[in-house]
Write a structure and sequence with these properties.
The protein is mainly α. The protein folds into 2 domains: about 80 residues, no CATH class; about 30 residues, no CATH class. It is about 50% helix and about 10% strand. It has a two-stranded parallel sheet with strand order 1-2. The N and C termini lie far apart (about 40 Å).
Amino acid sequence: MIALSSCEVEYIAAAMAACQAQWLDNIFGELKMKEKGAITLMMDNKSAINLAKHPVTHGRSKHIETRFHFLREQVTKGKLSVEYCPTTVQVADIFTKPLKIDQFKELRSRLGVIEVW
């Protein structure tokens, strides 16, 4: 897949995460461990959040494949909520970006990983 903007990349990644979250929610439901309320998906791209929350046709979204609008459908139905998470506390960044040592250590500690030596 080729994305034309960072908004599109984040939106597509969030749509895929929404699919996985829905799958996990179904599993938890079968195990009688389901939480009430919407699943919260934390994102660090405000444009992608706006695209998911406001189901209007934008010029920047008309070329995004229909299957990725699953995210928008879930938000509209109230099954999923998307919230802004600043990149400084986005724990997933430790797996995807080169970080300065202090930010790396902070995110590492949030994951519960400790230095052994």
